[in-house]
Structure formats: structure tokens, C-alpha cells
Amino acid sequence: MSFFKRILTMAFLGAFGAAAGALAGEFLFSNNEVNPQTQPKSICLLFDVSGSMDDTTPQGITQLQALKQAAGGFVKRQDFETDEMGLVSFASGAKVLTPPVRNVDKLSNSIRRLEAGGMTNLAQGLQLAQNSLKNTNGERWILLFSDGKPKTQRQGVDPEMLALEAAEKVRNAGIQIVAITTSLADRTTLERVAGNPDNVFLSEFTALDEAFKSSEELIQTHQMLTTEADNTSFVDSVKKTGIWASLIAIGTGLLLVGAQNRYLHRRFLGLKDILVVAFGGILTGAAAGAGAQTLFNYISALEADGAAGRVASWVLLGLGAGIGLSFFVPNLGGVRAALGGIVGGAAAGAFFVYAIPQLGEYIPQLDGDRPGRIAAAAILGLCTGMMIVVVEAVSRKAWLVVHWGKGEESEVSLGAQPLVIGNSASAHIPLTWNPDAPAVLARVSYVAGEIKIEDPNSNRTKVLTNGMKLSFGKVVIEARESAVDGKAQPPQKSTAPPPKPQLKKREPAKSR
């Protein structure tokens, strides 16, 4: 098989396997279809401005000033073309400073005018926040910040119970609550207010900006594999992406490993190959997918449109796919495989983020996340399969050319991992699949700049020079070595039949 034919074969099979894996994983996104009218979000910022907010932080500013800085950054990162946001403050009482609007300047000005003083009437704040969201559309959220326990001036009432009752009414109205708090507050109470411990973020005033970014991730529910809004939590998104990536890795791995086997005249896929690829695909795919989703969430919290985060996460996905395949291609090497995967991931990410939306304007069938995911997965498999062949050929130092007869040849890289020549389906270079014949006839490796062939039956080794050929029945192997510092000489042409292996007897180890 020629070099270019092998590239095309591996590229096609990689693309087909990855696309098949992506298609199989589409069931994970069956609940993601969201009516565009429900995509916008209405968020009410509910801030505690009780007297304690005038206390000074280690940074030399008041707690209220730290809140203003973090909240200001949060507001500037939002997309006011689709979402709207309002501001309610509470202390001894509560008041609406800004009803839900799509005006970042108006909201930012309201935040800057916040003043501290009074108690912590959380119940009234929740009631007013709920009322402010009453006539809004889409998802409704309350982003609560509080640095203390609920307190009111009313006698004979339990302020905490009032807050919990108000929070229950908020949640029953379909409004979700996410809370940011400090060590001074009662986190248990706020977890009950939010209705979910995962919706509460504990932070000191020196790190409020990070807490607001974490709450933003929860509200926006970013996913690297979807550009449409959905209600999937961050944890579920990580699981979903990990499973999807595992299916991609398994689909790609099965076809590329099968192609590699046939290239070397092995069985396309045996039961052992299937089990190993499936197990490896689950491990590498899950790790790469979960890591990619986490990376996307982190970067997209810093970048409003998430494009850089999405491309970076696809690169990480490709990296995992490449490393996974390095376990099945002899002497490919993790670094070289990773390079091929990175290129494939970058191409897939760019295609998903930039090409698919443009093509969707002209080809309706490509409009949407589903064709984008499948097409991007195919690009990932195509580039990974192609780059593995290219990187392997460019970076190798030594290899074997296997002459099968009738003009058919295969090339396989040499390295520290010995290549087995033998009479079994599991041999790297199989001569026959006869169970009665010797399973291993020779092992060939490239160590310390030398190509060595070992006969395990006679314990003899021999160094092969560039161009040397050895016959194993009808199969002839030819040692090849790239020129490094002028060391390797061009192979010498010869009309003589290939010499039989002359192996040097291995010296017995000296006893101590």
C-alpha cells in the first residue's frame, strides 16, 4: 500500500468511525432541544446591604466595595441581547433598584449606588425579587449574595423560617436560586433557601469575582457540544461529554486499529482487540471529554461567546484520542500521537465553531448542533487518522519494510517495543495463523541507535544495517534507518536472494 493510499484509508476510516460514535451518542442530547423563545434568561441580582457590609476587608476596602467590583464584572460579561437583569437590595427592608432590563449601563450605575446599613431581612428581599421577575419570560433566576444570618426588627418571629418560607414560594413559582455567601453566613440555611447545596458558593471577599464566575457557569449551563440553551447542570454536562467522547474514541479506535491490522496482514478485529479498544476508549474518552468540558467552562467564564473555550476543549479532546491510539499502533509514541490528535482536535473545534454556522446559512441540513457535532467528530477522526500516519512517517528513526509478495509492501515503525514476527494472529508481522507453528520466530527492536533482531528460540541476536533483508518463508523484511548525522547509509541494491538470519548467540549473564 502506497503512503498516500494509506493516509486516505486511515483518514476515511477515522472519519467514519468517529462520526458513527458521535451518531450513537446523540441520545445524550435528545432532551436538549429547546424552544428558541425559552432561551433568554431573566436574572434578578438580590444583594444583602446590611450594616456589616461596611466592614473593611484585608484589601483595605469595604465589603460592599468588594461586592460592587465583583458584581460589576459579572454584569459586563452577560449577553444583554437575549438576557435581561434587574437588581434588588435588602437590609432592614427591601427595594427594587432596577427592574429587569437589557441595559448594562443602567444596571452598573445601580450597583455603584448601593449603600450599606440595617439588618438582614432576607425574606422580604426574596419576596420582592420574585415579584420583579413576575412578568418576565424564559428561565428565571435569583442570584443572591448575603454575608450574614437572616434578621428582622419584627418581634416574636423567626427570620430564618420566614426566609425559608419565602424561598419555597420562589422555587414553586419556577424561579431558580443560586447563592454566594461568606464564612460569616449560615451556609446550611442558604443551601435550604437555594434548594440544592450545589447552588451555593462559599467565598471570602478577596475572591468574590471567582464566586460570581462559578455562579455564572451554573446559570448559563455552558456546554462545549451545544450552542443552544438547555438546563443541564455542570456535573451532568461533564458526564455527558465524557460518555460522548468515549463513544467517539471507541468508534475511531475500532476502525483505525482494524485498518492497522489489515495493513500488516492481521485479522481485522479479534475479540481481544475489541475489548481492549472498548476499555481504552472508555478510559481515554471519559478523561478527555470530562477535561474538555471542564476547560470549556473555565475559559467561557472569561469570554462571553465561548469560542476560544470551545476550540481549546476540542483540542483537548483530540489530544486524548491521539494518546489512546498510541497504545495500538506499534512504536507510534505518545508524543507523536498526541501531536496528531492536537491537530485533529484544533481542526474539529474550528469547524464546529466557525464553519458549521456559516455552512448552515447555505445548507439547511447542516444548521444546528446535531449535524455540527457529527461533522466535527468526523473531522476529528479524519485528521487524527491522517496525522498519525504523517507524524509516524516523518518522525521515525527506524522501520521495517515488509515484502508480502506480488509487489505488496507494508511499513511498520521500530522502537523500544519489540515487533513480533511469528505464526499467530497476535504477531505484529504474522507469517501464518497456524497454531501448530512457532508463535514467535523473531523480535525486532530499535535500541541505542541499532536495529536488533532476536531469535527467542536460540537466544541469538543480530544487528541489522540499513537495507539488510531477511527471509521468513515467502515474507521478506527489510531494515530501514533514517539518516541521522550521516550515520545511516542508503540501502544497497542487490540481485542476490535475501540472506537467511545469522544471529549471534547471546552471552549468558554473569553470576554475582
Structural write-up:
The protein is of the alpha/beta class and 512 residues long. The protein has helices at 3-24, 63-76, 104-112, 122-132, 159-172, 187-194, 208-220, 234-263, 271-300, 307-325, 334-362, 369-395; strands spanning 41-48, 84-90, 94-101, 139-146, 175-181, 200-202, 398-405, 408-413, 419-422, 429-430, 442-447, 450-455, 460-464, 469-472, 475-481, 504-505. Helix content is 44%, strand content 18%. The strands form 3 sheets. The chain has a 6-stranded mixed beta sheet with strand order 3-2-1-4-5-6, sandwiched between helices. A 6-stranded mixed beta sheet has the order 10-9-11-12-13-16, with no helix packed on it. A 4-stranded antiparallel beta sheet has the order 8-7-15-14, with no helix packed on it. The radius of gyration is 32 Å and the shape is elongated. 44% of the residues are buried.
What's the quick description here?
With 512 residues, this protein is of the alpha/beta class. It contains 12 helices and 16 strands.
List keywords for this structure.
512 residues; alpha/beta; Rossmann fold; Tumour Suppressor Smad4; 3 domains; 6-stranded mixed sheet; 12 helices; 44% helix
In what range is the share of β-strand residues?
Answer: 15-25%
Fraction in helix: 40-55%
**Radius of gyration based on Cα positions:** 32 Å
| Count of individual domains | 3
Number of DSSP strand runs:
16
Give the helices and strands as they follow along the chain.
HEHEEHHEHEHEHHHHHHEEEEEEEEEE
Biggest sheet features: 6 strands, mixed
Question: What structural category do the secondary elements indicate?
Answer: alpha/beta
Side-by-side strand order of the widest sheet: 3-2-1-4-5-6
Number of separate helices: 12
Uncertain stretches of 5 or more adjacent residues:
33-38, 492-499
Mean pLDDT figure: 81
What is the rounded distance between the termini? Answer: 51 Å
Which of globular, elongated, flat, extended, rod-shaped describes the shape?
elongated
